[in-house]
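Suppose you are handed a protein chain with no further information: no name, no annotation, nothing but its sequence. What can you learn? This example shows the usual starting point.
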Amino acid sequence: MAVDEQRTGATAAALALLQAGYSVHLDPDLNTLSATDGDRQAAHRYLHQLAEQARDAEDDREVAGILTQIAAPYDGLLPHLVATLNAIWVSWAERLDAAEVDPDLADQLRNTTWGLSSYPSQIERIRNQATSAPLPPSSPTALPQQMSARRR
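A reasonable first move is to predict its three-dimensional structure. Written in structure tokens, the prediction is:
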């Protein structure tokens, strides 16, 4: 198989496993969603794909797969975001401390990050509950009516 075909196949397999609720680590060299020349664009494409999958989800299992990709303890988007924000906070706080500057903004970031760090486990709990107790079927017109009633 050509290298591009291998990368495409590995990425598709990893996404299928993630959607099924498994935690997956894919070597970045095989992941077509990460490109060394366009990491930011790849991240945006990945988020866009998750949003598309959510819009197209037909059952709770598909939704659970998407939530797994967001909240998985090691591979999820939120835990990686929290780790990144923690790294920013630590280096920023150290720099401010060395310069004897009030660390108020860095402390605000720390507090915000601490609050954000609880979200992955909350999302996992929601995912687990959604797959263990399926919601009753609703009519196609019930959802828009429910959403518009909540907005009022």
